[in-house]
Amino acid sequence: MNYWLLKSDPDTYSYNDLEREKRTVWDGVRNNQALGFLRRMHKGDLALIYHSGKDRHIAGLAEIVSGPYPDPEDDDEKLVVVDIRAKRRVQQPVTLAQIKADPVFADFHLVRMSRLSVMPVSAALWKKLTKLCSL
């Protein structure tokens, strides 16, 4: 199993939206590195949903429920999407400031490459983040 962090501006699509819809297509990824990460996802992987923009915190947990497939809404063959479903809201949102303040996260993509919308999370960082989130 792999672990991921998926970023979304809550004004565009929030964890509340995912909870309401229960399942969605995770689309709109255009960055080549983020697309590469998206292509490595597998059914059953877990992802933290991170609210970017003014919120800047981890809001919920989702499960990847499909492998990557071509974006049905776009003719560009390099664009892929995955389906995700809501699992549960975090009990304690973890902010970007908290993450940046902890040296354990110094090499985490969220700290080093803040504009990346899809990123892997190592097992060690996943364990720490889910503990901080009270998941």
Write a structural description.
The chain is α+β, with helices and mostly antiparallel strands and 135 residues long. The protein is globular and about 40 Å long. It is 26% helix and 33% strand. A hairpin with a 5-residue loop joins strand 3 and strand 4 (57-64). It has one domain: ph1033 like domains (ph1033 like fold), CATH 3.10.590. The chain has helices at 15-21, 32-39, 96-101, 109-112, 123-132, and strands at residues 3-8, 23-26, 46-51, 57-64, 69-70, 80-95, 118-120. Strands 1, 2, 3, 4, 5, 6 and 7 form a 7-stranded mixed beta sheet that branches. The relative contact order is 0.24.
Summarize the structure.
By secondary structure, this protein is α+β, with helices and mostly antiparallel strands. It has helices at residues 15-21, 32-39, 96-101, 109-112, 123-132; strands at residues 3-8, 23-26, 46-51, 57-64, 69-70, 80-95, 118-120.
What's the overall average pLDDT, rounded?
A: 97
CATH topology value: ph1033 like fold
Gyration radius, rounded: 14 Å
Q: Please, what is the CATH homologous superfamily?
A: ph1033 like domains
**Alpha-carbon distance between the termini?**
17 Å
Secondary-structure blueprint:
Blueprint: E1 3-8, H1 15-21, E2 23-26, H2 32-39, E3 46-51, E4 57-64, E5 69-70, E6 80-95, H3 96-101, H4 109-112, E7 118-120, H5 123-132
Parallel strand pairs: 1-3
Antiparallel strand pairs: 1-7, 2-6, 3-4, 4-6, 5-6
Which tags fit this structure?
7-stranded mixed sheet; globular; 26% helix; alpha+beta
